User: Fold this.
Amino acid sequence: MCGIVGYIGNKKASPILINGLLRLEYRGYDSAGIATIEENEISVMKNQGRVNSLYELEGINDLKGTIGIAHTRWATHGKPSKENSHPHQDNSNSFAVVHNGIIENYNELREFLTEKGYNFLSNTDTEVIPNLIHYYFNKDENNDENRILRAVKSACSDLIGSYAIEILSKYNKNNMIVVRKDSPLVIGKGNGENYISSDIPAILSYTKDFYLLDDNEIVKLSRNKVMFYDENLKEIQKPVKSIEWGASSAEKGEYADFMLKEIYEQPKAIRETIGAKLDNGIIEIQGLSLDREYIKSLNKIYIIACGTAMHAGLVAKTIFEKLCKIPVEVDIASEFRYRNPLIDENTLSIYITQSGETADTIAALKLAKSKKSKTIAISNVIGSSITREADYSIYTHAGPEIAVASTKAYTSQVILLAILGMYFAQKLGKTDKEIISNLKKDILQLPNQIEEVLKSSDKVKQFAKKVYKEKDMFFLGRGVDYAVSMEGSLKLKEISYIHSESYAAGELKHGPIALIENNITVIITMTNSKLVEKSISNVQEVITRGAKVLAITSEEIKNNGFEEIIKIPKTNPLISPVLSVIPMQILAYYISKEKGLDVDKPRNLAKSVTVE
Ligand code: G6P
Assistant:
């Protein structure tokens, strides 16, 4: 939520800032703004609307400053408006600030500052920050080069909540200060210039060398130097990390949208996530070393995540329980963290998060750690916040995922979790070796099989053309087909704004069937030969009531009244969601296109939810 960019160097800052914001727009897109220093004064330009709306502002192209901060907003406190857009300034226009996160005690701070004579022009929580910095700056009688740094440190020690902040001051046009706590921020190191961003892909075209910040670290950037301080302003050293992602991985290339590109990148994402893990007899996962005794001691595994990542967890539950015979509970991070979950040192907890920045998932991990649970983070972003908290971090290698609706991250998560399940099973030695070696073979075939499924995209596109005007849809399935139906339903909601429900096929008759009326669209997934007859009976119940049914199946079925059948290759039912989800992703995509919507940036959503 909210994206931040910063630049200090010798080039004109504004085009670099706007270009960075455009790449971060998936994080929020209801208003945008930039600030640069022009001849010793701070110049702020902001507008309600998408980042491109900045170009409508008179004078934006005349900004010459070579130091600047920028922000794209996803409103939390204060509705989307020009006044509430960032950057915000203190009353004397000496400091400009952009902020991602939430200041929970902003009301108290506002009262305190109001008593001291400060006025507020916006309804945001952020506006307290520049004024607080100004307050401490004025109180400090020592006018040395670290006066601003000390003011920022004092202001931060008053803030409760989460923040990634960039600060520009007219008192020092050769320095910029940034600070982070529970919100993402990276520094890109250039030659005689430095960049700041909420994530790596936004500035990949400028540099591949990054400093990753930890909580409460304060950074002072100049053109040739980056200095790091802890919360007590003690100087610290940080290593530079070189990132292997190519700049083109964050570009749309020949595709109309990032989502379509990412759907088609799934064979590659799966191949890279599998990597060399299955090459030898013994499964090894880099970053993980759990011994047999520990795995044997487990009474339960918790899988915690949000959104699509949680749906990957639901698939993993079936895999783990089947292979390892350990009970698995899957929970939504925002629920888990407030329900006093039953955890002890014999509970392993696994956190799935593409971005590694989801606030609820990180908080859930911290909670489990405090109860002595060992924690494993599964993320797509090396060095992301969660990976610095977890006992073990293992990675999907899906490459940058830019579209808000997750696709390749989901399938990569399912595969990594399947391999993790096999890793546990092999250590426990409870599961037949043949089952494991067959599953291995099936996993290795998946990338080619996804390519096969992608070939049926035209059929799905035609179906999308028939149904895009509808108001409601149902997604049905049993077992993992039910788990993947939830993901299909979420994809549809996210990018087409069509209301949809997913139901366990056998549960339909206990209520929701009352909603089935003539011509309603139902999507049923059937990939398990043991359950297919049961599912067909359930689907007949809706066909009889006039539903138009799209079947996604790997089974040989007769066309008993289906509107369309999408045949997918056969695989082990445990990992079938990696194939069956593809037609659902394509369906949601083409429905959204037919409706003329913005596929990559659906309304009200943000890719990375760094607030509770
Ligand atoms: C947001 C995104 C979803 C994503 C969820 C969890 O809601 O819009 O696509 O699944 O966050 O994100 P994470 O980065 O933790 O996987």
